[in-house]
């Protein structure tokens, strides 16, 4: 543990919170589960053999905490909650072929590939910008390592509905990563416009991803975003005083 800095621990904790909130949809509960995972890790620190990274080890503890909670409380997503998430049609034309703007690009996924911090930021952003219920099912399969049979049993999904949900999630995730890793990073002018428009309408998934990635790297646009919120607050106070 002495080789892990406070900053690294905080980054790991933030990532754990993001994942836990995705699964339980409650900030306070996610905080409790992450806290329990850290307490369990420190109590069992002697069992950490350094055969894997500390992050991998403590995430495994969190995964088990979440699985235990969901099974105990029956809080897995239900089939009826997924009926309105038919998003895959936008990727294909009326004949069922890929639309040119959605052609898949090759994602470098070999085990030996070393990804940059920027790539992992984009990956996490794309993941968290999936429709919440799709993301939950996808993470149960790919991160919690539950089998298809286990997910169907715990969620009361049919195998057909599960396969459809995973298909939609993979379509959107690879599309998001293809676009963002090809260099389509939002510039400040576009980002500030998106910030302004977010006060007037709901941004689509690509806009949310692009804006989130840009804001993570641009302090000036983060300041602009805060100022927009402040302006709205000031106008409300101005209206109330007149």
Automatic annotation (TrEMBL):
Domain Putative zinc-finger, first and last residues per copy: 188-222
Domain RNA polymerase sigma-70 region: 17-75
Residue stretches spanning the membrane: none
Keyword tags: DNA-binding, Sigma factor, Transcription, Transcription regulation
Domain RNA polymerase sigma factor 70 region 4 type: 122-173
GO biological processes: DNA-templated transcription initiation
Any one GO molecular-function label of the UniProt entry: sigma factor activity
Pfam family, one: Sigma70_r4_2
Family stated for the protein in its record: Belongs to the sigma-70 factor family. ECF subfamily.
Protein name: RNA polymerase sigma factor
């Amino acid at each position: 543990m002495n080789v892990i800095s406070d900053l690294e621990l905080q980054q790991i904790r933030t990532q754990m919170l993001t994942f836990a909130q995705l699964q339980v949809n409650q900030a306070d509960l996610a905080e409790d589960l992450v806290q329990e995972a850290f307490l369990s890790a420190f109590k069992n620190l002697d069992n950490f053999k350094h055969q894997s990274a500390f992050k991998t080890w403590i995430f495994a503890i969190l995964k088990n905490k979440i699985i235990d909670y969901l099974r105990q409380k029956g809080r897995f997503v239900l089939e009826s909650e997924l009926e309105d998430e038919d998003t895959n049609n936008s990727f294909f034309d009326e004949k069922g072929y890929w639309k040119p703007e959605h052609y898949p690009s090759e994602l470098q996924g070999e085990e030996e590939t070393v990804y940059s911090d920027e790539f992992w930021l984009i990956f996490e952003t794309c993941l968290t910008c999936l429709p919440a219920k799709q993301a939950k099912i996808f993470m149960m399969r790919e991160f919690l390592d539950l089998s298809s049979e286990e997910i169907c049993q715990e969620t009361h999904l049919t195998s057909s509905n599960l396969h459809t949900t995973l298909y939609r999630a993979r379509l959107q995730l690879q599309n998001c990563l293809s676009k963002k890793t090809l260099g389509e990073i939002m510039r400040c002018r576009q980002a500030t416009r998106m910030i302004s428009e977010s006060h007037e309408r709901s941004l689509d998934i690509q806009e949310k991803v692009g804006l989130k990635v840009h804001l993570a790297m641009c302090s000036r646009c983060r300041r602009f975003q805060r100022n927009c919120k402040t302006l709205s607050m000031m106008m409300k106070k101005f209206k109330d005083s007149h």
